[in-house]
Amino acid sequence: MSTPADLIIAVDGPAASGKGTIALRLAQYYGLPHLDTGLLYRAVGLGVLDRGGELGDAALAERVARALRPSDLTDIPRLTDRGAGEAASRVAGHPGVRADLLDLQTRFARQPGGAVLDGRDIGTVIAPDASAKLFVTASPEVRARRRWLQLTARGETIAFDDMLADILKRDARDAGRGAAPMVQADDAALLDTTDMDIEAAFDAARRIVETSRAR
């Protein structure tokens, strides 16, 4: 269990909402370790594909998840490409995969001093007693544009309309899955970054954390 001195910050939200950047900035500001839990699921998805398997193969996905460690999340360019994102959303629907990754994420959150984690179910499943909870979102069109700009800057070719379709499909899959669906925790503060740049979004997030700590 966390102690009163621990600061656990849960940052949830859909793809390309800005939650990862906000979580990293919060971790740097408070001097806490940070875990992008989405990378875990991306690594599982890629691990299944690297073994020649199908993303719908729950047993294989679970074996990959059981062997995963945070130190395996080093190939950031590959883990953050479009294919990895789609693979992550697919394997995250397997209850066994989520169960296998639950302990890893929980132990990360419970380390002395606290931590910052971002994902889809941090405030509802991984750290329901987090010191501060944020649900970061933005309009689908803005999120698609952010992701489209990120990918095209790296040389990937994708039409904006296809990117928007991907975002909407992932939203529906993440919110509709039976195992730990993406929902805003009842006690999470909503942060809509549609009309914010990163500095404004970080400042708003920091103020939410400070308000939560003062309670």
Descriptive report:
It catalyses: dCMP + ATP = dCDP + ADP; CMP + ATP = CDP + ADP. It is found in: Cytoplasm. It is an enzyme of class 2 (transferase). ATP binds at residues 13-21. With 215 residues, the chain is α/β, with parallel strands linked by helices. It has a single domain, classed as 3-Layer(aba) Sandwich (Rossmann fold), CATH 3.40.50.300. It has helices at residues 19-30, 37-50, 58-67, 76-79, 82-91, 95-109, 122-126, 140-153, 160-176, 198-213; strands at residues 7-12, 34-36, 114-119, 132-137, 189-192. The chain has a five-stranded parallel beta sheet with strand order 2-3-1-4-5, with helices on both faces. The protein is globular and about 50 Å long.
Summarize the structure.
Helices cover 54% and strands 12% of the residues. With 215 residues, it is an alpha/beta fold. The protein has a single domain (7-213), classed as Rossmann fold (3-Layer(aba) Sandwich), CATH 3.40.50.300.
**What is the helix fraction of residues, given as a range?**
40-55%
Averaged pLDDT: 92
Secondary structure class reads alpha/beta
Largest sheet: 5 strands, parallel
Q: What would you call the shape?
A: globular
Strand and helix order: EHEHHHHHEHEHHEH
Radius of gyration: 16 Å
Which runs of at least 5 residues are low in confidence (pLDDT < 50)? none
Q: How many domains would you count in the coordinates? A: 1
Helix count, per DSSP?
10
